[in-house]
Automatic annotation (TrEMBL):
Entry keyword Transmembrane helix: yes
The name this protein goes by in its record: CoA pyrophosphatase
UniProt KW Zinc keyword: no
Alphabetical list of InterPro entries matching this protein: CoAse, NUDIX_hydrolase-like_dom_sf, NUDIX_hydrolase_dom
Residues annotated as domain Nudix hydrolase: 42-189
Transmembrane segments: 184-204
Keyword annotations from UniProtKB, A to Z: Hydrolase, Magnesium, Manganese, Membrane, Metal-binding, Transmembrane, Transmembrane helix
Gene3D superfamilies given in the database record: Nucleoside Triphosphate Pyrophosphohydrolase (3.90.79.10)
Amino acid sequence: MDVPLRPDRAPRWLVPLLEAIADGGAEIPRRLLSPRVPQKDGADQAAVLILFAGDPRATELPEDARVLITHRTPRMRSHSGQMAFPGGHIDAADGGPVGAALREAWEETGLDPDRVIPLAMLDAATTGGSNRRVRPVVAFTPEPGEVYPASEEETDAVFFVPVRELVDPRNRAMLGIKEWSGPAFWAGEFLVWGFTGVLLAVVLKLGGWVRPWDEKPGDLRAALARSANRER
């Protein structure tokens, strides 16, 4: 049996996000990705954890609101050098996508699953690189404790990015190659794009935190060249 969702334990500042997910927002990532990647049906194959942290007593977006992000080591065979939410393959012992997301986050970042409150899930979406159905799990932690690259073969950087930095227009971009473009975010010297960029853009919009920004498409290759991603 999968780990249960507990939306009743969400802080008030995350309630608008959960309500928007329940009111049709869960299908947005799949719809946004469908023009680029044929979306498969069937069982979930992998899961990722979109983990928010911040003041549990706040009623509106607190100053310390932040999201957990990892950098995949450039030595990886797939998605090398990319920014990603913690996550990976769903094993039979996980019980389902929530259990898998929590286990993978622990293995990759040292995040104690007992500190995490799973809140909601988005619809599973098929990714372009691995062609797997990935289930995003939205969660909250009032106090994450220390996070770090717990599996250095997979990740070489693990950190929280402040939500207010992510929605800063200076840190947002629409980047692409040829006819494809998608949302991207600067997290310090790292560039978050692709599947993770789409998920991040969706939850920030559903949460009601987005500020106007320049959506004119730019060159993804040029942005990656000046980033610290070291993608192949």
